[in-house]
Design goal:
Elements: H1 2-13, H2 34-40, E1 46-51, E2 56-63, E3 78-82, H3 101-107, E4 111-114, E5 125-126, H4 141-160, E6 165-170, H5 172-183, H6 185-188, E7 191-197, H7 209-213, H8 218-225, E8 229-230, H9 236-243, H10 249-260, H11 272-278, E9 283-284, H12 285-297, H13 308-315, E10 332-337, H14 345-354, E11 358-364, H15 371-374, H16 378-395
Parallel strand pairs: 3-4, 3-6, 6-7, 7-10, 10-11
Antiparallel strand pairs: 1-2, 2-4, 2-5, 8-9
Helix pairs in contact: 1-9, 4-5
Length: about 400
């Protein structure tokens, strides 16, 4: 019964987001994984598996060369891209090369790596835990901060033989960066620049669907959705497509606006089938509750287990500890959206004001959260500037 209820909820809350006005030719990438998509466009690719200190196995992708680049042994800037919640590395390559962040960066001459947080479609393995068990899914954003990012970044630097890399985070990918770099000074020293896109760190003024979720009692949320995964892909993809109203894209756009701040004029709607196939990709119920906690209380803190005694076991204090933004001293460049209902401009301003080493902040008035990845003008508005930042840094 709960499985049916869960499916129905996401049919209405997620599936309708990516509706199509009428039947369109299917893009082949809708049936491909990230590595296959990369190869389809003529790029070399690699897959690597990273093991975290608590035993999770994370698949990460590498694009070592641009499409027309001569292969040689010259040292190249290493760029690491970290996705948000509840998506995966897939979404960095969902558009053609002229507008996909990963391809743009590879063609600019960088060594590009795409990471995956535990629980996504690309990181659902463990050395001994069964992915169908509650134990596997007993993680929040804290474990991604403490374990996933350090393991992935260390793996990349060891593989490339470099001492530092450039970090690009989107949405909750920025959240993870602020948490990790503030609490792990050794890790912070390995980051040349933290590029923060659509930062979702302080969320008191967040609007839309996730704001509503934040006011659902955690116990009720667990009753409705269980204690394991949420936003996962399985046969539900076909159900979502089946229930999507085929002739009423306006209703879909309204729901997209409710959740992500949808800008229909800045999205390539001919590729909606690709987006449906790769968004969302899953996370834990506990991660959603952790995210909701920040919205409800308006603070950037560790996961609240809902019990003073359990919090005491984990943190040696009754309340979860806060992440100190002022301790995140990595050089940071930030891009935010004026229409981003997840990274509300008021919250972003507070974050920017408290970021010690902020060297650049650009607000793009017409941008919603997803525009930083799939926006038709993302190359011009964001990635050309990031490429210029890195090239200037390399020339110094």
């Amino acid at each position: 019964m709960w499985r049916l209820l869960r499916t129905m909820c996401f049919v209405h809350a997620i599936g309708s987001i990516f509706c199509v006005l009428e039947a369109k030719p299917k893009n082949p990438e809708a049936d491909m994984n990230a590595t296959e998509i990369i190869s389809r466009w003529g790029y070399e690719s690699e897959e690597h598996e990273v093991m975290t200190k608590d035993g999770y196995l994370l698949l990460i992708f590498r694009i070592p060369y641009g499409r027309n680049e001569r292969r040689d042994s010259a040292t190249k800037p290493v760029v690491y891209l970290q996705h948000g919640l509840p998506v995966s590395a897939d979404y960095w390559v969902l558009d053609p090369p002229s507008n996909s962040p990963a391809f743009l960066l590879a063609d600019a001459g960088f060594d590009v790596w795409l990471g995956n947080s535990r629980g996504t479609n690309n990181a659902r393995k463990h050395v001994h835990l069964d992915p169908d068990s509650e134990e596997f899914w007993a993680f929040s954003l804290d474990e991604q901060i403490a374990n996933d990012l350090p393991a992935t970044i260390d793996f990349i630097l060891n593989k490339t033989g470099q001492a530092q890399l450039y970090y690009i985070g989107h949405s909750q990918g920025v959240y993870l960066a602020y948490g990790a770099f503030a609490t792990n000074p050794q890790l912070a020293q390995k980051i040349k620049t933290n590029f923060a896109l659509a930062p979702v760190v302080l969320t008191k003024n967040l609007r839309g669907f996730f704001h509503l979720v934040a006011y659902v009692d955690p116990m009720l949320f667990k009753i409705l959705f269980g204690k394991k995964d949420v936003f996962t892909k399985s046969d539900e993809k076909n159900i979502l497509l089946f229930f999507c109203p085929s002739k009423k894209i306006a209703a879909c756009n309204n729901l997209f606006t409710l959740m992500f701040g949808y800008n229909s004029q800045n999205l390539n709607e001919s590729r909606l089938d690709v987006y449906i196939a790769h968004i969302p990709t899953g996370t834990s119920v506990q991660s959603i509750l952790h995210f909701s906690q920040g919205i409800y209380y308006g603070v950037f803190e560790a996961y609240d287990f809902g019990s003073k005694s359990v919090n005491m076991e984990h943190y040696n204090q009754f309340l979860p500890p806060r992440y100190k933004i002022e301790d995140m001293k990595v050089r940071t460049a930030m891009w935010s959206g004026g229409q981003d209902i997840l990274g509300d401009p008021k919250d972003v301003k507070k974050l920017a004001d408290r970021t010690p080493n902020l060297v650049y902040h650009k607000q793009i008035p017409h941008y919603a959260n997803i525009d930083f990845i799939l926006g038709n003008d993302a190359n011009r508005e964001v990635y050309k500037e990031i490429i210029e930042f890195i090239n200037n840094d390399q020339s110094e």
